[in-house]
Amino acid sequence: MEPLSILRSPPVVGLASLAAQRLLSRGSSTSPATSLLGAAVAVAGLGVAAAGIREIRAAGTTLDPTRPADASKVVRQGIYRYSRNPIYLGDALLLAGYAIHRRDLLAILPVAGFVGVIDTFQVSAEEEALRDRFGSTYGDYVASVRRWL
């Protein structure tokens, strides 16, 4: 097992970020406004991630983030026209919604940490595997669609 392979597990990084939010922030008393805004951002995140999952399943390719080389095609339709990583974007929005609900600026730090770790260790590895597998088809996609948003 690679020493940093744990950083290539999006569920582990997401759960660690959630735990860090709880540990770092004292969680000021919530207000109806911040609870509603936090819930709206979190629900938007769930929707973005679900749209990404739906498109991958519809394309009949792998959803396993540990095996990007098993992808059978480059998914470019639906939400993938706007973001190359809508599932991770949705996860980040979910964490951001929880940070808003917590009403503590320290709760934002793990959101940034999640994005940084996923971008550095997971997304870059996925992109390398997809570039190797699909060549210019994937290169054209990268040139036309942003990594996150």
Automatic annotation (TrEMBL):
The reply on keyword Nucleus is no
Q: Which keywords annotate this record?
A: Membrane, Methyltransferase, Transferase, Transmembrane, Transmembrane helix
Superkingdom per UniProt: Bacteria
Assigned GO CC terms:
endomembrane system
Q: Which GO terms describe its biological process?
A: methylation
* Entry's localization field: Endomembrane system
Q: Which InterPro entries match?
A: Phopholipid_MeTrfase
Which GO molecular function terms does the record list? Answer: methyltransferase activity
* Membrane disposition: Multi-pass membrane protein
Name listed for the protein in its UniProt record: Isoprenylcysteine carboxylmethyltransferase family protein
Organism placement in taxonomy: Bacteria, Bacillati, Actinomycetota, Actinomycetes, Micrococcales
